[in-house]
TrEMBL record, chain A:
Protein name: Copper chaperone NosL
Protein keywords: Membrane, Transmembrane, Transmembrane helix
Residue ranges crossing the lipid bilayer per the database entry: 12-30, 80-98, 103-123, 162-182
Superkingdom field: Bacteria
UniProtKB/TrEMBL annotation, chain B:
Gene3D superfamilies: Cupredoxins - blue copper proteins, YVTN repeat-like/Quinoprotein amine dehydrogenase
Protein name: Nitrous-oxide reductase
GO MF, any single term: cytochrome-c oxidase activity
Principal location listed in the UniProt entry: periplasm
GO cellular component terms attached to this protein's record: membrane; periplasmic space
Organism: Thalassobacillus cyri
Ranges for domain Cytochrome oxidase subunit II copper A binding: 518-622
InterPro entries: CcO_II-like_C, Cupredoxin, EfeO_Cupredoxin, N2O_reductase_N, N2OR_C, Nitrous_oxide_Rdtase_Sec-dep, Nos_propeller, NosZ/Cyto_c_oxidase_sub2
């Protein structure tokens, strides 16, 4: 196979592989809830492996509007996510050894596809939780879809959703994978 | 030409300087210190929303039996913490643990709080208190502000002269006020001198198990022990106590205990007594290890002091102790060093009740007698070598220099202060910022509430040379003494820890269950916003059916691990109510002796659907 990527490019790919592994241990996404009684905010923090933050309190409050309880058990993704990320990191490291543009292009394509799938999956969950409300709940709300990014108001709560450090690393990984293609375009 | 250039240069630089000064200099900075001093009284006590007071003030609630917590300088009351008396608002004395701790008592007389100390300074972990009414000592855990232990003490007769703690809280000491035959047995008042005793209880407190132990008791002559303090640093092994009624009056003490020109300060070396007790030199008296200090050479001495003294307070450096005269209107400064010298050279002026008496003039350093200042009761300290004395009769605080006796300032209080409490004012490191006079009389300082009056408290800023009166605040009866502790030293929990191994706790509503053992019904239930679950599998999880005559145990856990989400639990017509804090497990036990249908409901407003948080207790008739 033709080795048409420079040493620098191979190094960048190796770094991106390592960053991918690092991202497994960082939060990817979070939602912060503010209310008059919760000036300090309540957190839902999503790691690729687990949920963190004030999950019990948020669940306790959500039952008033009939939202299903969420926990690690309700998201099977949390079990296999680390393997997918780890596996992709291994592929990137292999790509760094092969130093082949076609392989790299393929990897970038796969990365974008996985990313799109991930975002679709998150949207799907947000929609499920926001619209599949228990009709017997004491407080009746119009079904809603909490935004993936940005502010939303539900009753006395204002929520702020945003990607977090792990997701920023994923963006860096994407750049580190694209730079070699551009840098070595004449090789 | 050259000159001109230089001149332009100089002018240019000066212009630049001028411009920079105009635009960037902060002329206010030079006055920043003055600005603080120039704050109005209102600004000094105003704590805007979003900010908090700098100090906690833990004030005794007197014969309410409770602890009052205030913020200083706002003087806002933050909380009543029940200690010696049941409190339906918090379920204190209703649930099994606090009911057992109270032991059936319905009141207490909380006098002198003492915050636990390490190295002579508040460590902020626990607060101890004496019950003069029923001879008890209590500890409040300052991580939860809940009373963690109460101990009844045998052989006591109203332990007014405590509590005080030794330098590292080795002991929480309580000397008795009324002489009484040991164990409170019957003995005629004619046999006062022979059969009546004064007793000091030396209790220890285990911070891990949060329990008291009575290490030993000291038996003393039947004088009245009024107030006391522990030594610090060079005097750390000693305790000093004031006495009155060395006349042994047994009736109309007002007159008959005020006859002698001199009473005594008693000095006791607790370290020596501790060693003797460890060696087995004590008698078992009603479950207490009783030691007579007169049997231990060097353990007890008496110093004559002006008539019926009240407070005695050790200076922050531990080198002196100051007695307040009450009936002889002067403060007497004694020197530990001089006392130690007199003891060493056996320079005694005879004995009283077999206690060696140190000559007054050999131990006294000075008498301080500000003109017209009457009824000195207690002394507090600042960080600059000043003492602050409350004057009950002339209703004022007198600030004076400990080293010279020079009077610096006098300010009226409204009216008749008992104790005062300065910010960290009885530690080795007083803060010197505030003092609060705890007054006994309020008259018409506040909106009238009829013949029943509140007490009053005066807050003074003592950071300057002269004291500045800032505000007067009302308080319920009755603050005897207080501890003002910097907020950084208190580290309260927001919720109870989720301890899944805790006895009787249930952490998931699915695990709630009812178990019958003979005629005992144990409910292992949960409280959460906004429901009770007693039996997860029942058709109605919030109903409990028992038979008349059953003993019912409600083991309830509040599984809302969220700040300030407290659930109450009241049972209609059964005269029962208790409370479960977030993460807490509490048990309520009672005999279901009344047949019928009794609503159960959450008594502490918890959530939007608090009103719906209810259930039923159904008691089937026999």
């Amino acid at each position: 196979m033709k080795k048409n990527l420079s040493n620098t490019s191979a190094a960048l790919m190796a770094v991106s592989g390592v960053l991918l592994v690092v991202s497994i241990f960082l939060p990817w996404w979070g939602m912060k809830f503010y209310a008059p009684q919760y000036q300090e905010g309540l957190d839902i923090i999503v790691y690729p492996t687990t949920l963190d933050g004030d999950i019990d309190i948020v669940n306790g409050l959500n039952h008033y509007i009939g939202m299903a309880e969420f926990s690690n058990a309700s998201f099977p993704e949390l079990v296999f996510m680390p393997y997918i990320i780890g596996g992709f990191a291994v592929l990137v490291l292999i790509g760094a050894v092969l130093r082949n543009k076609k392989v790299l292009t393929g990897l970038i394509g796969l990365y974008v596809a996985l990313g799109a799938l991930g975002i679709w999956d998150m949207y799907r969950w947000l929609k499920t939780f926001g619209t599949d409300l228990d009709p017997k709940a004491p407080i009746e709300l119009e079904p809603f879809v909490p935004p993936l990014i940005g502010e939303n108001t539900i009753a006395n709560f204002v929520t702020n959703s945003a990607f977090s450090y792990g997701a920023y690393l994923l963006a860096v990984v994407f750049l580190l994978l694209v730079i070699p293609l551009w840098k070595d375009r004449k090789l | 030409m050259n000159m001109q250039r230089i001149l332009y240069g100089v002018v240019g630089v000066l212009t630049g300087l001028l411009v920079s000064i105009v635009f960037f200099a902060d002329f206010n900075q030079a006055n920043a210190g003055d600005a603080a001093a120039n704050k109005s009284k209102a600004e000094k006590v105003y704590v805007p929303y979003g900010e908090q007071d700098e100090y906690y003030m833990f004030a005794s609630g007197g014969h309410s039996g409770q602890l009052f917590v205030y913020g200083v300088p706002s003087m806002r009351k933050i909380r009543t913490v029940p200690v010696f008396t049941p409190d339906p608002a918090t379920g204190y004395g209703f649930d099994d643990k606090t009911k057992e701790m109270l032991g059936g008592y319905s009141w207490g007389d909380f006098h002198h709080p003492a915050v636990s100390e390490t190295g002579g300074d508040y460590d902020g972990e626990f607060l101890f208190a004496n019950d003069v009414g029923n001879n008890r000592v209590a500890a409040v855990d300052l991580s939860t502000f809940h009373t963690s232990d109460i101990m009844s003490l045998p052989n006591m007769g109203g332990p007014h002269a405590g509590v005080f703690v030794t330098e590292n809280t080795e002991y929480i000491a309580m000397p008795t006020r009324f002489a009484r035959p040991l164990a409170g047995e019957y003995a005629e008042l004619d046999k006062y001198e022979e059969d009546y005793k004064g007793v000091v209880s030396m209790t220890t407190f285990d911070r891990k198990s949060k329990k008291f132990d009575l290490a030993y008791q000291i038996v003393l002559p039947p004088w009245s022990y009024d107030l006391s303090d522990a030594g610090k640093k060079m005097s750390k092994d000693w305790i000093v106590m004031t006495t009155y009624n060395t006349e042994f009056a047994t009736t109309n003490l007002e007159i008959n205990a005020s006859q002698n020109d001199r009473d005594y300060i008693v000095m006791i070396n607790w370290k020596r007594l501790e060693d003797e007790v460890a060696n087995g030199n004590y008698n078992d008296v009603n479950g207490a290890k009783m030691i007579d200090p007169r049997d231990v050479p060097g353990a007890i001495f008496a110093i004559p002091v002006a008539k019926s003294p009240h407070g005695v307070d050790v200076t922050p450096d531990g080198e002196r102790f100051i007695a307040s005269g009450k009936l002889a209107p002067l403060m007497t400064v004694f020197s530990f060093e001089k006392a130690f010298e007199a003891i060493k050279s056996k320079d005694f002026k005879g004995e009283e009740f077999d206690i060696p008496v140190l000559p007054y003039e050999k131990v006294v350093e000075r008498e301080v007698d500000p003109e017209g200042a009457l009824g000195p009761l207690h002394t507090q300290f600042d960080d600059k070598g000043h003492a602050y004395n409350t004057m009950f009769i002339s209703s004022e605080i007198v600030k004076w220099k400990v080293d010279s006796g020079e009077v610096i300032d006098r300010k009226p209080t409204y009216y008749s202060p008992g104790h005062a409490s300065a910010a960290e004012g009885d530690t080795i490191e007083p803060d010197g910022k505030y003092i609060v006079a705890l007054n006994k009389i309020a008259k018409d300082n506040f909106l009238s509430v009829g013949p029943s009056h509140p007490e009053s408290m005066d807050l003074f800023d003592i950071s300057g040379d002269k004291m500045e009166h800032l505000i007067t605040a009302p308080t319920d009866p009755e603050p005897h003494y207080a501890q003002i502790v910097h907020r950084d030293k208190i580290k309260p929990k927001k919720i109870y820890d989720k301890d899944e191994s805790r006895e009787n706790s249930v952490w998931s509503q699915d695990d709630a269950r009812i178990e019958r053992k003979g005629d005992e019904v144990h409910v292992y239930g949960i409280a959460m916003r906004s429901k009770f679950v007693f039996d997860a599998k029942a058709e109605r999880p919030d109903a409990v059916t028992v038979k008349q005559g059953d003993t019912v145990y409600f083991h309830m856990t509040n599984i809302d691990l969220d700040q300030d989400i407290t659930h109450g639990f009241g049972i209609n017509d059964y005269d029962l109510n208790f409370e479960i804090q977030p993460g807490q497990t509490n048990t309520l036990t009672f005999k279901a002796d009344k047949a019928g249908t009794f609503p159960i409901y959450c008594t502490n407003f918890c959530s939007a659907l608090h009103q719906e948080m209810s259930g039923y207790l159904l008691v089937e008739p026999k």
